[in-house]
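User: Just a sanity check before I run the rest of the batch. Below are the structure tokens for the first item. I only need the designed sequence back.
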């Protein structure tokens, strides 16, 4: 898909830099302005609500015949669906959020269709959950997330959300890869280019399909490495996915400038 390039409208660069500086200084764990106070972008297919309930599109990576990465014990798609189930359940306990799925468990679904489902639900943000793998190095481990890259619609908002997510995952005890767990990803043919989030140059290279297709702020997370026994034990089972779900929930509260509510049993 062709990358969508547009400039911010309605809010100056100083405002954007101020909010990003707040995330950098606080680690993303402090309350941020409501989404209506964040910088806007180019024309979008629907307005993003500026007050609760906020619609959160949850995208379980892969699906159907596409099982993603795998280890001898686990296929990625299984872990992705477990993680989305856990986050869906956590968000459903807070009436300020309305979680929606881009696909059902076991369903195969094209990227553009997932993005269209999120847009149809008028999602405020889209979170796509994946797991990493490095068969060549079993020691590779940790968490990283990828916001919509610079130059695309909603890239600044996506970066704010990504920093909130990484900060909360770090607080939950996960190792953050790179400088702070937030990176940009690009593809040149089959070659993948990963750069730190401090590299804000606009590139024409494509990023992950779901980020290029999303019609709202979006972040793709790699919750851990299936190829690493410690990550697999800590973050792919039910307990680990619920722990990650709580971190994502807290990050969403941070992003929308709301106090978290305790989970009800």
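Assistant: Here's the designed sequence for the first item:
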């Amino acid at each position: 898909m062709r990358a969508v390039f547009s400039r911010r409208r309605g809010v100056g660069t100083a405002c954007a830099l101020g909010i990003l500086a707040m995330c950098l200084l606080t680690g993303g764990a402090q309350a941020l302005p409501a989404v209506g106070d964040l910088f806007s972008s180019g024309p979008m297919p629907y307005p993003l609500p500026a007050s609760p309930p906020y619609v959160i599109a949850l995208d379980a990576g892969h699906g159907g015949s596409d099982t993603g990465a795998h280890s001898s014990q686990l296929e990625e798609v299984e872990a992705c669906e477990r993680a989305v189930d856990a986050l869906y359940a956590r968000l459903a306990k807070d009436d300020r959020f309305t979680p929606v799925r881009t696909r059902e468990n076991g369903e195969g679904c094209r990227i553009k269709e997932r993005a269209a489902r999120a847009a149809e639900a008028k999602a405020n943000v889209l979170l796509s959950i994946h797991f990493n793998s490095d068969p060549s190095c079993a020691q590779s481990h940790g968490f990283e997330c990828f916001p919509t890259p610079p130059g695309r619609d909603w890239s600044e908002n996506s970066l704010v959300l990504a920093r909130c997510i990484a900060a909360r995952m770090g607080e939950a005890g996960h190792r953050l890869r790179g400088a702070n767990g937030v990176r940009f990803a690009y593809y040149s043919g089959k070659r993948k280019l990963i750069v730190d989030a401090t590299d804000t140059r606009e590139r024409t290279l494509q990023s992950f399909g779901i980020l290029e297709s999303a019609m709202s702020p979006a972040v793709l997370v790699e919750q851990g490495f299936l190829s690493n026994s410690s990550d697999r034990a800590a973050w792919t089972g039910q307990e680990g996915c619920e722990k990650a779900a709580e971190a994502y929930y807290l990050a969403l509260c941070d992003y929308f400038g709301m106090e978290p509510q305790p989970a009800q049993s």
